[in-house]
Amino acid sequence: MTGGQRRLRAVVGSSAQHAHSEGSAHAAVPVAAAGTPEALIAHVARGDERSFEQLYDEVGGQVHGLVRRVLRDPAQSEEVTQEVFLEIWRTASRFDPSRGRAMTWVMTIAHARAVDRVRSAQAATDREVRVGQRDYDVAYDEVSEAVESRLERVQVRRCLDGLTALQRESLTLAYYAGYTYNQVADLLSVPLGTVKTRLRDGLIRMRDCMGVEA
Amino acid sequence: MTTSTDDLHTLTGAYAAHALTHEEVVEFEAHLRDCASCPQETRELVATAARLGQAEYDAPPPELKARIMTEIRQTRQLPPVGLHAQVVDLDERRRSRLLLGVAAAVAALAIIGGGISGGIAYRAHQDAQRAEAREAAVASVLSAPDARTVTASGPGGAHGTAVVSDSRHAAVFSASSWPAPASAKTWQLWVIDATGAHSAGLLTRRGDGTINPTYAKGIPTAGANFGVTLEPSGGSKQPTTKPVLLMPLQS
Q1: Within 13 Å, how many C-alpha atoms sit on residue B184's CB side?
Q2: Considering only residues 44 to 63 of chain A, which have any Cβ-Cβ distance to chain B shorter than 8 Å?
Q3: Contact state of B76 with A90 under an 8 Å Cβ cutoff
């Protein structure tokens, strides 16, 4: 992770600073510590390019990392990363901190855009699903310099290991490979309803394992 | 595809993993409104999925940042949504549920937070600026105090929905389960009244059979209909085939 982010955690951890939040145009914004993604997005919503740049520095590696994980192709991953940040810029005013964390919002957009690209590529090849061609094993060992996301990854891996095989496969195919649950059912030769419930109880188990709060 | 209510409860995981088709997303988000326990679970699972994403890291190429910074300087930002005004306005259940199909595609009614509905909005429009203009136009109809919905069946059991505002002389057409046009053909929307047929543009059909919300202005306040015909690619000045859907916009 960047030095910026470490610094940021230190700030957040030490005191409830809210240097930038007075005079906030967003009455709904709970007091957001300066430099947190929440605070940065509130500023981006008001057209602040420097906050946008800072946000990019803080989360660009994770956005690009997830997009790359789903798409694999470097050129497409770059394009989609660009789309994601443009969407963040355009729609920052729609982010509502009362409904979830800023990082959830950012990563949800990133994942949605990556999956869109997968689906439109599929449409372009006449919805040809290349069953079995795709290496959908979780590639845990992809190079990453980022200590923090490596720690996060260790945790994700540990929690994934705690799932049943079918939960893990369903979640991996849907989330990391961008398949619809219908396609996942085809790939795994299990009924649709089974995939639905495995995705749900797999994510519930991940939530509990990682201690996620909405 | 229509899913039973029981099934919809279990879609929280697939929804959070973006493993639903567009149509299923619309259906699920409509269900969220009526389901007491679903929004909380959905938020938690969306947050969990995001954590899986956060664990990934790959530094973007350095030149990407400059490109993005250049592009945002040329890109207008969306204003905050007048969400409360719209939701209060459309509080009547039947109507709001019908509207939802249209609204989900334009993020006018965010159900579970900007990320997801905003995502759908963007998915529907690649061209940001055109999308923005259309979004504003569609939102102006949806938020009109006199907005009401009209439905009609289309070809092969397709469902057409229009949201009409007489005061704005405008309407928005959308549809689901709509068949693909024959090759070298396109679906065209018309406003038809006693004076004749006036093109309201070509319909864009997504892979899942939904029709992108299509805005039409200059709607007469009496005797107007939406009609959809099959036309040669690029559209026609006047309809050349019989409408496959004809929808009176006023009762």
Answers
A1: 0
A2: 45, 47, 49, 52-53, 56, 60-63
A3: yes
Q: Which two tokens stand for residue B182?
A: 């024959």
Beta bridge partners of B196: B193
**Which chain A residue lies closest to B40 (C-alpha atoms)?**
A214
Say if the Cβ atoms of B113 and A105 lie within 8 Å. Answer: yes
Please name which of A63, A153, A149, A70 lies closest in space to residue A108, comparing C-alpha atoms.
A63
- pLDDT on residue A5: 38
Where helices occur in chain A by DSSP H, the ranges are: 3-14, 37-45, 49-71, 74-91, 102-124, 147-161, 165-171, 181-188, 192-210
């991940």: which residue's tokens?
A206
Give residue A163's pLDDT band: very low, low, confident or very high (50, 70, 90): very high
Q: Which residues pair with residue B187 across a beta bridge?
A: B230
CB atoms within 10 A of CB A4: 11
3-state helix, strand, coil in chain B (%, to 5): 40, 20, 40
Using CA coordinates, name the residue in chain B closest to A152.
Answer: B55
* B243 CB neighbour count, 10 Å cutoff: 20
* Residues 205 through 244 of chain B touching chain A, CB cutoff 8 Å: 207
Q: What is the ipTM of this complex?
A: 0.77
Report whether A194 contacts A184 (CB < 8 A).
no
A58 and A40 in contact (C-beta within 8 Å)? Answer: yes
Q: In whole angstroms, what is the distance from residue B156 CA to residue B174 CA?
A: 16
**B82 — phi, psi (to 5°)?**
-80, 55
Residues of A in contact with B39 (CB under 8 A): none
Cα–Cα dist B143/B79, whole Å:
15
Taking CB atoms and an 8 Å limit, are B80 and A123 in contact across chains? no
CA angle A77, A83, B178 (to 5 degrees): 100
pLDDT band at A152 (very low <50, low <70, confident <90, very high): confident
* pTM score of the predicted model: 0.57
- B87: Cβ–Cβ under 8 A, 6 or more apart, which residues? B96, B109
Tokens representing A31? Answer: 């007091």
Is residue B190 within 8 Å of B204, Cβ to Cβ?
no
Please give the structure tokens belonging to residue B183. 């090759």
- Say if residues B208 and B21 touch (Cβ distance below 8 Å): yes
Q: Which of residues 160-189 of B touch A (CB under 8 A)?
A: none
Residue A158 near residue A208 (C-beta atoms within 8 A)? no
pLDDT at B34: 80
